[in-house]
Amino acid sequence: MSTTFPAYLISKTEDGQSTDLCTISTDDLMDGDVTVKVEYSALNYKDGLALTGKAPVVRRFPLVPGIDFAGEVISSENSQFKSGDRVVLNGFGVGEVHSGGFAGIARVKGDWLVSLPEAFTARQAMAIGTAGYTAMLCVMALESHGLTPDAGDILVTGAAGGVGSVAVSLLARSGYRVFAATGRPEEQDYLTGLGASEIVDRHEFSGKAKPLSRERWAGAIDVAGGNTLANVLSQMNYGGAVAACGLAESMDLPTSVAPFILRGASLLGVDSVMAPLEKREQAWRRLEKELDLDLLERMTVEIGFDGLPEAAEQILAGKVRGRTVVKIPD
Question: What crossing angle do the helices spanning 45-52 and 308-316 adopt, rounded to 10°?
Fold first, then answer.
């Protein structure tokens, strides 16, 4: 029997795409072996691009956007899940080539799902979302490189955003001295409240990078790319590492080999979309143990379903702080 529910639907048009809030049914969902009642989703930078059409994020039409969701299994043909199970999804092309979380119901492959950790509600899981899960993957990458709190200062770019906010919180709680780079000086109290030791003006990293600059950072988490990442690389301590996970500034990387062959610096690529299940589960276990839920709440804003278009414009304009969770209507 078909069930109807509200959803955002992106359709192809002659001029690009249209995004409409409408009512669809379970008959409209894509193939999958697990059907989930979505309780919460989240707004990420990629979702902003998808909703506005300002970058070709969506590659299949029509499609429900939303790269994250959390909720309860309605039905399952997958042996790993049964009706009533609590689950969370991040990535795997959902919201890009497979309909996602900005709808009352989602149908996906069970292999893409992770059991919702007992410590988190669906809302808290989406307050973490892809951004927080990516931040933990970055921390894990730096740790695997051998980074420890006594190695030196750590830089987080885009620190007031979703990835940055969670990264600052996680690193500070683990004992690192965290420098938070932001272009919004009014967020100083917010960032120091998350544990940042110092605030750095992001414009320090906006110009053309020298092959090498003064050594400053034992490690870094970068969400920007472009000149920002090039400058950060030029300032790495000998043997330091940057975990790169975003392109908010640019997909380009105008750097040289100097940081790598003269200082032994490492650039660690972090992908959250297709990360294997084992790594995902490890990241969520770490978040369950290490993330301060009071700080998570402090960095979270909840919006209604009809507030998504405006919020999408704001996140692309750099006006969104921390994490934005979306309550999905019943």
Answer: 110
Q: Percentage of the chain with pLDDT > 90?
A: 97
d(CA 43, CA 92): 16
Tokens found for residue 328: 């999905």
35, 26 contact by CB (below 8 A) = yes
Q: Which residue has the tokens 């970068």?
A: 222
How far apart are alpha carbons 66 and 50 in whole angstroms? 8
Please determine, looking at this structure, whether the domain spanning 4-116+299-327 carries the CATH number 2.30.29.220.
Answer: no
Query: What number of other Cβ atoms are within 10 A of residue 293's Cβ?
Result: 14
Q: What is the DSSP string of 74-91?
A: EEE-STT--TT-EEEEE-
Residue with tokens 């830089």: 155
pLDDT at 15: 85
Q: What is the pLDDT of residues 277-325, one digit of tens each?
A: 999 999 999 999 999 999 999 999 999 999 999 999 999 998 999 999 9
How much is the pLDDT for 250?
A: 95
Angle between the 122-145 and 277-290 helix axes, to the nearest 10 degrees? 110
**8-state DSSP, 168:** H
pLDDT (0 to 100) of residue 110: 97
Task: Flag whether the pTM goes above 0.90.
Answer: yes
User: With left for phi above 0 and alpha for psi between -120 and 50, is residue 109 left, alpha or beta?
Assistant: beta
The pLDDT tens digits for 14-40 are 888 999 999 999 999 999 999 999 999
Domain with CATH 3.90.180.10 in the chain: 4-116+299-327
What 3-state DSSP class applies to 66?
coil
CATH class of 129-269: alpha beta
